[in-house]
């Protein structure tokens, strides 16, 4: 696999002393895993944040080999990770995507939807501005992977948005995350708790 394209970094984990294994969502190639030399170094650490929009240059000698990647930052989500609610939303959206999607299957609609969702989380003045997009993204993910996922009714009030959010938890846990290692749903529960505080 050789490609250069914009991508959303959806997961990153340590590999050895200084490298990282990144999972990226691209528009035309779906999720790709890659080796990033120096990913934990001072220069690349700010780039290796889930949610960041990057330009990726992938190179692999064969289809069976994990490609090496060079990443250039296009747009950082770092400033919003200091805010509890946006940080929880970004973490959940990326963790869900990284856990649910198979590698190298293109999902252009999901790429565009995730890019729009992350942009909304960072630009909307409050959660009311991006919460409907989160509900729509979860439902779209279910539909794209063949599990139905009816479009949630548009709710104007936060209580209605939370009801939509709660209704999607069962299908997500049952169909997309049941056999995944680690408690990915913990990120969703944290987001739910922080959203509920807005009603208090």
From TrEMBL:
Pfam families given in the database record: RecO_C, RecO_N
Gene3D superfamilies according to UniProt: Nucleic acid-binding proteins
Location of the DNA replication/recombination mediator RecO N-terminal domain: 1-75
InterPro entries cross-referenced by the UniProt entry: DNA_rep/recomb_RecO_N (IPR022572), NA-bd_OB-fold (IPR012340), RecO (IPR003717)
Protein name: Recombination protein O N-terminal domain-containing protein
Coiled-coil residue windows: none
Superkingdom of source: Bacteria
């Amino acid at each position: 696999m050789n490609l250069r394209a914009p991508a959303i970094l959806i997961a990153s984990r340590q590999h050895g002393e200084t490298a990282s294994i990144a999972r990226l969502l691209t528009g035309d190639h779906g999720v790709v895993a890659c080796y990033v030399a120096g990913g934990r170094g001072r220069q690349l650490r700010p780039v290796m944040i889930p949610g960041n929009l990057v330009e990726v240059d992938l190179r692999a000698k064969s289809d069976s080999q994990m490609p090496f990647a060079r990443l250039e930052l296009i747009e950082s989500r770092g400033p919003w990770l200091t805010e509890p609610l946006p940080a929880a939303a970004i973490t959940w959206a990326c963790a869900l995507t990284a856990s649910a999607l198979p590698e190298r299957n293109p999902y252009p609609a999901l790429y565009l939807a995730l890019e729009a969702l992350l942009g909304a989380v960072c630009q909307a003045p409050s959660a009311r501005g991006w919460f409907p997009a989160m509900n729509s993204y979860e439902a779209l993910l279910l539909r794209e992977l063949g599990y139905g996922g009816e479009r949630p009714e548009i709710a104007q009030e936060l209580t209605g948005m939370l009801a939509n959010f709660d209704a999607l938890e069962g299908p997500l846990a049952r169909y997309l995350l049941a056999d995944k290692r680690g408690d990915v749903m913990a990120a969703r529960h944290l987001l739910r708790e922080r959203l509920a505080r807005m009603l208090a």
